[in-house]
Write a structure and sequence with these properties.
It is a single chain. The protein has 460 residues and is mainly α. The protein is 77% helix and 2% strand. The chain has helices at 15-26, 29-41, 45-73, 77-87, 96-127, 136-147, 150-170, 175-199, 204-212, 216-238, 244-249, 258-286, 297-308, 312-346, 350-371, 390-417, 420-427, 431-455, and strands at residues 377-381, 384-388. A two-stranded antiparallel sheet has the order 1-2. The termini are far apart. The structure holds phenylalanine. Residues 25-26, 28-31, 108, 236-237, 239, 242, 244, 330, 333-334 line the site of phenylalanine (PHE).
Length: 460
């Protein structure tokens, strides 16, 4: 048995706090903004069905593996991978996961912060009554005017980045732990109220049918693309494949059950995504909007609804406030792997490491800011017409390439490289569950992700 390590960055105060923090990382713009618009672009029910299959067969086993590796190594993802590989007499090149993960973290954070900036601005727009009784066309125009102004986008992008840096600089414990406890359940309740509102529209059943009944003929025609998008989104939404969950796992107390924590996080993540879609799609049909309108979807449908509801200004601003909060808890986890690495390897203080990491992500984010105005161009990828620019390229590069590649490396590492004894000891699952986990990770997840990954290069 290897001597237990401790992390120099601290430890969660309890298993519950870990679950909250990891759920905070998982639940974010991915659930409320990206999931609904990806589902709308990929035909609704079929996307959701494949998404759920990917979460169960790939996402959950890989998440458990990632948390387990993190707790075993107790360092930044790069150093953890290097240490665990060296322990089994393997090459230090396994640290590539840490390098790719840091790259993915920078890239995701760069655009995440821009979109979270939109959310920030919408808190104020809704609160000030901008959308009161506004016609759908007006709401669309407000969105277009907003995104065509790079200076405003840059301003909100900067605000959000500084918010994340402030928390990360102090360490993930402290204020965050307390805030997550209250705000996450509140977000959940507001989502339920939004679903309630959607139920009161005539098109609720149409929305439900669109989301829950897969259209197999269309699916058969677009299978590789829909599958690619659903699996990529599973990685993105669960925050796996880039070290964010691994670094959170490195602060996990030794006695915690990784299996229970993983199941809890993945379930909450999927439930929030489905609730958000149930709140949005009935409105799409009620107001004759395009389900495939892309990243603008929630910034158009929801304000229309808030404009029609009594007290919608207050309710809408609360809603966007909670989405901002969900994005915040995800944003800080995107910075964390790089910050821990700079602290460990460059001997930096946490504050300096955070300023450098956030600063670089902020600069890269300018590319996304300009994607919606001066540098906009369209192209087609995996059957989807993309109307952005650098934003779309970064989005595809991360969700469809870097995160699945990270997931593949993780599953190969735990199934073939790490010693069975350490894996078993660290996971500490009952025998049946362990066998199931091992089988799905070794064969289903790694082979599945491998095929998805190669299919993008036309190999399958
Ligand atoms: N899971 C987050 C979301 O759904 C995004 C994220 C991806 C966070 C990868 C950390 C790492 O919004």
């Amino acid at each position: 048995m290897v001597k237990k390590r401790t992390s120099i960055h601290g430890q969660w105060s309890s298993q519950w706090v870990f679950v909250l923090a990891a759920t905070g990382s998982a639940v974010g713009l991915g659930n409320i903004w990206r999931f609904p618009y990806m589902a709308g672009e990929s035909g609704g029910g079929a996307f959701i069905m494949l998404y759920i299959i990917c979460v169960i067969l790939m996402g959950t086993p890989i998440m458990a593996a990632e948390i387990m590796i993190g707790r075993r190594g107790r360092q930044s993802p790069l150093n953890t991978m290097r240490t665990l590989a060296a322990e089994g007499g393997h090459s230090r090149h396994w640290q590539i996961l840490g390098i790719l993960g840091m790259l993915a973290g920078f890239l995701i954070m760069s655009y995440y912060s821009v979109i979270a900036g939109w959310v920030l601005s919408y808190i104020f727009k809704t609160a000030s009554g901008t959308f009161e009784a506004a016609a759908p066309d007006t709401v669309v125009k407000i969105f277009n005017d907003f995104t065509s102004n790079p200076w405003i986008l840059l301003f909100w992008h900067s605000v959000f980045m500084v918010m994340c840096m402030t928390v990360t600089a102090r360490g993930v414990k402290g204020g965050l732990e307390k805030a997550v406890r209250i705000l996450m359940p509140t977000l959940f309740c507001l989502l339920l109220i939004m679903v309630g509102y959607a139920m009161s529209t005539d098109k609720f059943l149409d929305g439900m049918a669109y989301l829950l009944i897969p259209d197999f003929t269309t699916l058969a025609a677009n299978f590789p693309e829909v599958f690619l998008n659903a699996s990529g989104h599973a990685f993105f939404s669960l925050s796996i494949g880039m070290g964010a969950i691994m670094v959170y796992g490195s602060y996990l107390p030794t006695k915690t059950s990784i299996a229970n924590a993983t199941i809890a996080i993945a379930t909450m993540d999927s439930v929030v995504a489905i609730l958000a879609s149930l709140a949005i799609f009935p409105l799409v049909f009620t107001y004759n909007l395009e389900p495939s309108s892309g990243p603008s979807l929630i910034f158009i449908t929801l304000p229309i609804a808030f404009g029609q509801m009594p007290g919608g200004g207050l309710f809408g601003s609360m809603f966007f406030f909670l989405v901002m909060f969900a994005a915040w808890t995800s944003g800080i986890s995107l910075l964390e792997p790089v910050v821990t690495w700079l602290v460990e390897n460059k001997g930096m203080r946490r504050l300096k490491a955070t300023i450098i990491t956030g600063g670089i992500a902020w600069i890269v984010g300018i590319g996304t800011v300009l994607s919606f105005n001066h540098w906009a161009f369209s192209f087609t990828f995996a059957g989807l017409e993309k109307h952005g620019g650098i934003f779309d390229i970064i989005d595809i590069l991360t969700a469809n390439i870097l995160l699945p590649l990270g997931g593949l490396i993780i599953s190969i590492f735990v199934a073939w490289i790490m010693s069975k004894m350490s894996v078993k000891e660290e996971l500490d699952m009952n025998e049946g569950l362990y066998k199931f986990w091992f089988f799905t990770t070794k064969y289903v997840a790694s082979v599945g992700v491998g095929i998805i990954f190669l299919s993008q290069f036309g190999i399958f």
